[in-house]
Design a protein that fits this description.
Length: 438
């Protein structure tokens, strides 16, 4: 479920190369300085009469959702630099037509309980084709995979978390990529795999992007092409459902193309932790992250010792403070899920009830609807992080609602490999959908 997969020692892939290039691109420094000198800040939301107490706070939060607080330039790359970036990260650059300019947006949203908070995200625009593209741009909503450290978020690190944004923007669309809550420069801890907050942060990122585009001299058409990888694949499906359901009147869902999402925790992903389909290292990371984050939202355990063996129970919650790296977390935890969980809690995971089942099912509704737009589900038969059964389960649910969604097998590649293979194909799929609409 993450886009920076830490592999077992026998893997030949060096995980650090997936985080290469944290420095902000130097190209276009004069442009960045000029924009930074006059950052776009949205006007305050119009005041409305609201009742007192908690109802007042909730209504005010809803009224201000998506309000743009600031725009900060973070990268500028010409087309040749975008191609080099993609090649360095093992991604085909064939679709690149334009350079890109990227900005960190800070905006108002709500947390998992509907309370007001702020979040950040990456907003990327085609850079050098204004006279050919015009000012009106379709928008890609791009939701990223699992990240444990807030500084890896797309709006902060100029690394692999920006591959999809650069691919889609260099093909001629604007890209709105939320960091989610608690990542990037947003406050608090990340509510990992909380579908509700992933959707609100994504919808509000689209709203903030609409304002930012206007202040940067561009206009978003409102046509949204949704994609995402891993955790973000699940989030993309949920966002698509929200947009089709009228979450914001300015945005219309046009196509869905998630990659390797964990759409079926109860039926596929959780069982795969215990039957060998998920590799041990990824299983330890995903399981511990999910339990710690979900316990803040659902009654999974009263004390960490109920779920985690000693000595891990005393350290596991602080490992997910948003400041630790995957490597640091995995060094502090055992090699397998079996060694990490107490026997009683491991049994509960395999036969969930109560809060555990509630948490799983809260995430498992994202494919239980009928998209009225073209859909492609990208996955890989060789994936041992998010087994392909998740995609086939999703396709079956969509089919029950009358939507045919082909599962596009990327072959015998690992989790990150599924993304690298699929991401350029997603761009071409979006191009084809857009061409049919013209």
């Amino acid at each position: 479920m993450r886009d920076e997969t830490y592999k077992p020692p026998e893997s030949s892939r060096n995980s650090r190369t997936w985080r290469k290039g944290r420095g902000i691109a130097a190209a276009g420094a004069l442009l960045l300085a000029a924009v930074a000198a006059a950052p776009a800040v949205a006007a305050p939301a119009a005041s409305v009469p609201v009742p007192a107490g908690p109802a007042r706070a909730a209504q005010h939060a809803d009224a201000s959702r998506g309000t743009l607080i600031s725009v900060t330039p973070v990268a500028a790359r010409d087309a040749a630099e975008v191609r080099r970036f993609l090649v360095e990260h093992g991604t085909a650059p064939d679709s690149v037509r334009y350079g890109v300019r990227a900005y960190r947006l800070t905006y108002r949203t709500v947390d998992s309980h509907g309370r007001p908070t702020t979040a950040t995200g990456l907003f990327t625009l085609p850079a050098d084709g204004g006279h050919r593209l015009g000012h009106r741009l379709d928008v890609v909503a791009d939701t990223h995979g699992t990240m444990v450290n807030r500084s890896y978020a797309p709006s902060v690190e100029d690394g692999p978390g920006r591959i999809s944004s650069y691919l889609n923007a260099s093909a001629g669309r604007a890209v709105a990529a939320p960091d989610y809550l608690g990542l990037g420069e947003g406050p608090g801890r990340h509510p990992y795999m909380d579908t509700r907050s992933a959707v609100t942060a994504s919808v509000d990122m689209l709203r903030a992007a609409r304002t930012a585009a206007d202040r940067l001299g561009r206009t978003l058409t409102g046509d949204v092409y949704a994609t995402g990888f891993s955790q973000g694949g699940q989030a993309a499906m949920a966002l698509g459902r929200a947009l089709q359901g009228g979450a914001d009147r300015h945005f219309r869902l046009k196509a869905l193309a998630p990659i390797s999402g964990p759409y079926d925790l109860e039926g596929q992903e959780i069982p795969a932790l215990f039957d060998g389909r998920v590799n041990d290292t990824s299983g330890v990371l995903y399981t511990s992250y999910w339990l710690v984050a979900q316990n803040r939202l659902h009654p999974l355990y009263k004390a960490p010792a109920e779920a985690f063996r000693a000595p891990y129970a005393s350290r596991v919650e602080e490992l997910y403070d948003g400041e630790h790296s995957e490597e640091e977390i995995l060094k502090a935890l055992p090699a397998t899920v079996e060694k990490m969980l107490t026997p009683a809690f491991r049994a509960k995971m395999q036969h969930p009830t109560g809060g555990l089942l509630e948490a799983m099912r809260a995430a498992d509704h994202t494919c239980d609807w009928g998209p009225a737009v073209p859909v492609r589900l990208y996955a890989a038969s060789g994936d041992t992080d998010v087994p392909m059964g998740n995609a086939t389960s999703c396709a079956a649910q969509l089919a029950d609602h009358g939507t045919r969604a082909p599962v596009m097998d990327q072959g015998n590649v690992d989790h990150v490999g599924s993304f690298k293979a699929a991401a350029p194909k997603v761009v071409r799929f979006f191009d084809a959908v857009a061409a049919r609409g013209r």
